[in-house]
Amino acid sequence: MRRSFGWLALLPLLLAACGDLPQPFRGNPGGLAGRLAVPPPYRLAVPTPDAAMLSATESEALARAIAQALLKREVPAVAEDPLPLDWHLKMDMRLEGNRVVPRYALFDPDGAPQGVAEGSAIPARDWARPDAALLAEVANDASRRAADLLLRAEAARKSTAPSALTASGPPRIYLLPVRGAPGDGNESLTARMREALGDQGILAQDVADGAGFAADGRVNVVSTRPRMQRVEILWIVSRRDGQELGRVLQMNEIPAGLLDRHWGDIAFAAAAEAAGGVQRVIENAGGMPAREGGGQQAQTGAAPGGLALPPRAAELPRPEPAR
Questions:
Q1: Would the pTM count as exceeding 0.90?
Q2: Secondary structure of the chain in the HEC alphabet?
Q3: pLDDT (0 to 100) of residue 149
């Protein structure tokens, strides 16, 4: 029999649209977006390159310039590390004689390569001291190459069509492996969360392809008072276009060392409660199929954000002495 285990808090942090990403492609796509999708069902991340033969400051400026150039082409892009469902563009430079040749590689959310393109060569002496005009020129060329890679990749990938996000059937969520838990917590929480999401009518998968949402679980354990620890489990729910939809936070104070080995039934209880929070975040975003009758099921003990609060925390059993 599974032990009863309740968390002290299951807090909904329902967020509005995050970041400063302009959205000219929402509702009125133009240019490249008209040939891609309306709106594009992905976001393209442009992380700071580490092999661009530039200083750190110049590399960051180049990534920002490329993202801005892509936005002008109606491609949703940001100059930052990719989120779980983001595509991303990796860039490097190689020296050929007295010229520097850029290379751009496109990757899907699962890290699978989707194409490589070379950019226009640049005189090495100019690249050694690039000014703003040169960075803008290279960024414009990069955006053109990246847009072409995206067009080719989209033509070959039916799962990126808008219909894939609205097809009938349960919503699909990319469940990332949980990070930061002691003992076997990462594996146990990931496995139990996959099962619990299924109970909520959500199909969890371990790849990004075809998923409309993503859930990223992170665990933090901190000492609070003598022989006690506070366990914090944070689930970040995002959408395919990169927008963070909400966060579900669980906290409880436990005897120190209780979870250093096996999580067992605690993982079942934590995942069951968290899955309900994730389901509500997706439902609030319009991602859950309509219930028969068109009504919402009533819930008791609802928090202001709409997530049902868990039952009162039960007393935890004390850890068994080591043998």
A1: no
A2: CCCCCCCCEEEEEECCCCCCCCCCCCCCCCCHHHHCCCCCCCCEECCCCCECCCCHHHHHHHHHHHHHHHHHCCCCEECCCCCCCCEEEEEEEEEECCEEEEEEEEECCCCCEEEEEECCCEEHHHHHCCCHHHHHHHHHHHHHHHHHHHHHHHHHCHHHCHHHHHCCCCCEEEECCCECCCCCHHHHHHHHHHHHHHHCCCEEECCCCCCCEEEEEEEEEEECCCCEEEEEEEEEEEECCCCEEEEEEEEEEEECCCCCCCCCHHHHHHHHHHHHHHHHHHHHCCCCCCCCCCCCCCCCCECCCCCECCCCCCCCCCCCCCC
A3: 87
